[in-house]
Amino acid sequence: MTPDTSKSLAPVARGVPKRAPASAQSIVVGSFASERVEADAAIAAPRIRRWTRRAYLPTLYAMQAFTLDRRADTRDEIWLVEHPPVFTLGHVSRPEHLRSPGDIPVVRTERGGQVTYHGPGQVVAYLLVDLRRRSLGVREFVSRIESATMELLAGYGVQAARRGGAPGVYLEEGEAGAGAKIASVGIRVSRGCSYHGVALNVAMDLEPFTRIDPCGYPGLAVADMRSRVPDIDAGEVASRFGRLLAAHIEKKP
Known about the structure:
Elements: H1 22-32, E1 47-50, H2 56-69, E2 77-81, E3 86-89, E4 106-108, E5 116-118, E6 122-128, H3 138-155, E7 160-161, E8 169-171, E9 181-190, E10 193-201, H4 234-250
Helix pairs in contact: 1-2, 3-4
């Protein structure tokens, strides 16, 4: 039976982001205010911001507001954050892939991709990048996100790879649990600028993934870094991840 999620879904408009609801304005301005920078932003490296745990919806509203308010000289940013438990649906997600959400809230978004889970122990990197300014196509941008993720994992001795036709990063053959997904990628592009990003499973309770068909694939196994690196430190991972993502974005096409 397809679950009735009508009470838990928070619809988000497609296309050009809209202003956050008035009730969220103070959260957006207070926590994630866009900063104006000088005209050299066109060549500046992305600014990296890191926050402690933040609720998903205020973060989403902040991304939309940042993207809506961007100017030609607005500096790109990478936001690193951890969310309380939440399921998010991409704009093409099918309801049957959300099998038994239980008490975990569900949010419908405008990003690409299908259903996924965010929760404690996961590092989420939101990439607010002017792709036109950097002469980056969407496919190349996603490829760079995946490359940065694989490089990070390799630095911890975890071998991972892409999978054709299924964006994200998966454990490579030869790894225990080969084929399991360890990072999900889903972005949205509005007026040539990206938002949303990549979620890396670091040290999570993976049980909520059993309540969904991760990324729309029934039975897809999911892994985290802790199963390979028992003493993994999520804070250290977040710092390294931000630097690697910035470096890969900065590479010339």
